[in-house]
Every structure is written in C-alpha cells, then in structure tokens.
Amino acid sequence: MAINQNHLFEELDGVKxxxxxxxxxxxxxxxxxTLLELNGFRVIVAASPPPKAAPAPKPADPAAVAPTESVxxxxxxxxxxxxxxxxxxxxxxxxxxxxLKTADGHVVxxxxxxxxxxxxxDDIPYFSKNEE
Length: 132
Fold this sequence. Notes:
Elements: E1 9-12, E2 15-24, H1 26-38, E3 43-47, E4 80-84, H2 91-96, H3 110-113
Antiparallel strand pairs: 1-2, 2-4, 3-4
C-alpha cells in the first residue's frame, strides 16, 4: 500500500514497481525510460488501460428522441504507465534531492524533467529563479 499519493506502487508486467508517471505519451515514456536507465534504474513501461467511459445519459422521454446514426467514438490515445523496479524510488525526492543526472553529467532539474528545457540548468537553484 502506498504511503501517500506521491509514492504509488503497481504491478506492471508481473513486476512490482514504483510508479513514476501514468498516462504518458509514447514520446514522454521514451524520454523517461532513457533518463532513468541512464541513472541505473530498471524501467518497465506498460500500456495504460483505456479510460472508463461514462454511461450515456438516458433521455426523459424515449419517444421524443429522434433516431440518430450510431457513430463509433474515436479510439482513445495510446498512453503508457512508467515504473521502476526500485520500490523506494520517488520522482519528487529524486529531483529535489538532486539524485538524477543527465547524459552530460548535469543534475536533473524540474524544468528538464518536465521537458520545458532541453538543457538542465543546475547552476541556478529552483528557489532563486527570476520570473521572466
């Protein structure tokens, strides 16, 4: 059982994992897998189950509703769940504890983790950034 919502566990492909992120795109899962494997973690990426569809509301008077063509809904986007086999891993603690490194040896920052910046600027602490 998870300690809190920031420390989730799940079984992915038959292996108990600490969840890094859920419902991520294929590009995001590739980025996370590369970064975490570079830092020595065994990463498991599994397809996320499709979201549950809400039941259609029932009309008040079935006779008043005109018949319409049944159009199938578009398929849900393909999303993935990313986890690591080290169940002690917590992404928030790893980022702010400066435990993860990039390929060029810099510390992973929150902007780099969220892919807002292509370069990790670890020389400026997150708490002293000037708002631009």
